[in-house]
Amino acid sequence: MTSAAHDLAQVAREWHEAVILYPVYSALSREFVFDVAPCTVLETVTDVPDHDTVEEAREWLALMDGRTQVHQLRQFLQTTSLADEERVRALLSRHLRKPIKTNSDRDKIDFLLVQFFSLTAPSQLSDADVSLDFVAQTLEPVLGPVEPAPSSRPVLRNFSPASRIGTRPGSSGVIIAATRSQLEGIVRDSQSDVIQIGYGGQSGFRPKLRHDCGPADVLDARHYTTQCGLVKGDSGSPLLLHEDGKYRIIGINYAWVDLDFINHVFLVVGSASFDPTLKDLIAGKMQATPVKEWIKAPQDKGQQSNSMGQPFRQQ
């Protein structure tokens, strides 16, 4: 194949990838109100275009990559019918080809690899079948041949709350009543790891573990946003800080909400909100309400608000 023919074939592959990804990026823009104008050439050109047209499409896709945060990509792909194997594979290839990868690009690649694995692995796969060799073989179509290496992550398959969750002075056993400055410290510390355990998405009766789910923006000690997008089933999932070989709860996923001053927030109720109540319960200063009495209580139909007095609307 001549150099010119090779270049033409490469442009054709790039254009085909852009065309199949355009509906994904367009839907992302609408979902999260990116205020980005549609790409006219990707909507109208059907054949392999000239150089200027391809460059226009490249610039539009690069703009959308920059606007899309990993938590938005995660939420969207777990709830849309557009996330088929072909498009997830194309998204992976696009991000893997980038010569310079930002932290956001690497986070997206991590998530897309998991998504691709879930789409291509056998549906009846058991935990015992998941080895490093098996994962490497499943991901070979997008990564090529890979020599599995031991992970530096803590092993969570045999996670035992009784043996791995520890106490800390000033906390109620497994809970850290984190202050705002402590939460902001987690945001700044690139080495900190916050793990979410929950049943969101299509996990069914098998809990799903996610790393790097720490605070994104700390609103106050009682509320912050999470770097992990929330999907149906995530509400109530604990967020555990891995620290000194122990796991301690720093918050509980609440919901995807709109605040008065910002839209599409993945809100977490910080442990400072419920730690005092838990301490009183443990000390015998209060009693839990029996279920029979609780369900008879009139429901509060008023508008909820956060600790700052700002009303929010749950999605």
Q: How would you explain this protein's 3D organization?
A:
By secondary structure, the protein is an alpha+beta fold. The protein folds into 2 domains: 3-143, no CATH class; 161-314, Beta Barrel (Thrombin, subunit H), CATH 2.40.10.10. It has 11 helices and 8 strands. Strands 1, 2, 3, 4, 5, 6, 7 and 8 form an 8-stranded antiparallel sheet that branches. α1 crosses α5, α4 (70-77) packs parallel to α6 (103-120) and α5 runs antiparallel to α6 (103-120).
Spans of 5+ residues with little confidence (pLDDT < 50)? 154-172, 300-315
Instruction: Please tell me the CATH architecture of the largest domain by its name.
Output: Beta Barrel
Total domains: 2
**Considering DSSP H and I runs of 4 or more, what fraction of the residues is helical?**
40-55%
Class based on secondary structure composition and strand pairing: alpha+beta
Q: Total helix count?
A: 11
Keywords summarizing the entry:
alpha+beta; elongated; 315 residues; 11 helices; Thrombin, subunit H; 41% helix; 2 domains; 8-stranded antiparallel sheet; disordered C terminus
Question: What's the layout of helices and strands?
Answer:
Blueprint: H1 3-31, H2 40-44, H3 51-67, H4 70-77, H5 85-96, H6 103-120, H7 132-143, H8 161-164, H9 180-188, E1 193-198, E2 208-210, E3 215-220, E4 223-226, E5 238-243, E6 246-259, E7 265-270, H10 275-282, H11 291-296, E8 312-314
Antiparallel strand pairs: 1-2, 1-5, 3-4, 4-7, 5-6, 6-7, 6-8
